[in-house]
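Interim report, section 4.2 (structural modelling).
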Amino acid sequence: MPPRIGSSSSLPKKLLNCLDTTLPSSVPSSVPLRRPVTAALTASQQCLFSTSAPREATKPQRLFREWLKTSGKKFQHHDGNGPLYIGRLTDEGEENRTMPFPSNPAYVSEPVLSDAARETIWECVMVNKMPLKAVSAQFSVDIRRIAAVLRMKEIEKRMEAANMQMAIPYANTVEKMLPRVNLTKNERPFEPINDIHVHSYTMQQLFVPVSESREFTRSDAAKAFGGHILPPDSKMRIPELITLEKDIAKGVEPRVAERKFIAATAKHEAEFARRLKIESIKEEQNKIRVNSSRNVEFRFEKVNVDDVGRDGRARSGVGWRYGVPFNDRRRGAVKIPTSVE
Amino acid sequence: MRQRRLLRFHSLKRGRVRQTWNKHNLFNLLNYRNQLNTGRTLFQQKWAAKSVTRAYHGEHISEGKWERMFSRRLLSAVDMAPAYMARHDGSEQAAGRGSGKILSEDQERFVPRNGRGRDAKKMTPYMQMTFAPQERRLDVAIHRAMFASSARQARQFVIHGAVTVNGKKMKYPGYMLNPGDLFQVNPDRVMTATGLPKPPTLAARQKALKVKAQERAEQAAAAAEAAADETPASPSPKPSSPPKAKEPAEPISPEEAKKQEIAELRKIQDKTKWLISSSKGQLSAKHKIAIRSLQKQVKKAMSAAGTQKGDKSVDTVESLSTLLVTLQLTPVERKAEEAAAAAAAAETESYPDPVTEEEQDILRRLIEEEKTNPWDPSKPYMTPWRPRPFMAPFAFIPRYLEVNHKICAAVYLRHPVARPGKTEVPTPFNYATSQLAFNWYLRRS
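Predicted structure of the assembly:
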């Protein structure tokens, strides 16, 4: 243990003398004035309990603070004039302002549908009763996106009618930050509507010997890749568009061809609705509804007891079976649902 | 403690790019330089690529979980133009010596050889799709839809029960969205995540005010109780309370008094019911609890009045009705009343100077803004709502989502795909780095 400084020791006194700002010249030079002590002097004005000097900023910290004051300042507050990304200089020397990630030119911030555009789509379908496929073709918006827009617009309108809370200032701000389209006539097509998924079977190189005189078409190519591969023509989301283009190529007047296209899509939609209705009626016929006295409706469905399979664990089986334990509590069993209806 | 961890997470020295909207992260993203692979073994290159990409993609997902999620099948799509497909059956691509005839530039412009537009010749960046399976996760999708400022915050929203999928509460951040799934986040959470935070002093002041008001209310209640105890026989109803209890001017029979009392209580009960139904979604939890307890008290009082006879019950009616009045005054309602009064005052007042049209426009806009973005101290974020700083450089919506920001809902349309020259997975890394990371994860299978 190092010797302690007793009360009679002169050292503290000397230290106290040192701390005195009006230092007399007669102080013995045995107590050197070292840096920490002087640092404590300045720091003691702000922080009475600490005698150590504040840590200096590291180089990255300094650079960061400098950046905040100079070129980083423009990112702090958005002025409401369109998107503001980091961007990058392209090979031609122009600044690409659609890239949020300077190292990745393959990802660009693509425009979204503005609120006005979504309202237009909703009106076309719900007010003007246009078929979904026709709306999709008219605005060049994916049919799944059209369905999503309609679904959320309906929720929005319901919430508005019920006077529920909505994030309107947030939505207005975000819309100003994003590139957006209004679906007017002069804009470029919004997105590909007839794109097809690339099947992994078609990603390999094949050598198929065919005679020179043979016309080797798309459907022949599909067959060559595998028996179950469909040709692109039957994978199209809106095959009616091909008919429309064929008519135009044959010399039919565009307006007439378009009318034919709309009629064809409307017919397809009606057929789909009819099939859905038939299905729901069939399902209803399989059910027996019984109203009880307690405002409760019981629905009985016919099930097959053999659906559970030999081990009683088949997915389509109904009910709990005696002697067959659940394994949903077993260690490592995943409880996260795979779908929500 | 929290601050320390955040600083380490966004360390300027290590310079990791993360999935957040933090300003330090923006600085790191700006200064990110592609990995240099010279003088490194292939293993070192892959290791470095894996660690730098995983710091961004699902840093909160454990490595084992991600390895199970990883898929070597990378999805892509090609655009087929109907105009091309109507005019060609594909045999022209095998014409000539087997790989199609050489077209002049003009011809090619008129009929593109494969009908796929101008990006057709670009390479499809498959390797940038390495982390595509993660985009299916609910928490990542919430962050991508701009409902949360980081993937971790999105995860917290899910765990805290603020997110629904197809209208049902989903508490698993690892839920893999299926095409067509609609997810919705509580607007208050979104506004808190994306808005300016309340300054701590203001929040503290409001909390102190709340405590003081509560104390005062308690004191008043105690005083009222004491007064009621002192004069149980002769209650003095306040004239200000709306459901006025009638002063017994002449002695009435106890039966009649009981009837009157029950009628009064029923009125109060009806009013509480109306209060709950009319202000759905506006009441705070505390408020709701108070109203419910009031309802219970009324019920009790009614049953008591029905069985026993006594004069004490008159003042129970009184106290319950005053309690109801205080409960009715939510901050929203008070504000609405004030606004109505102000509007009435403005109508009666005559303008001394004519207001120019410009000024009128500004005024109208301000009034409109006040309507949609009001000052409301009960909110957990700063009101009127303003976006948080450094938000714009991170504002983008990938194409596989369709978002409605007004209702804070989004639909997962389909799985992300690569197209010629484009990827739908937002990743800050270059092709080579992603490729190395992809190759790292290939080792498992």
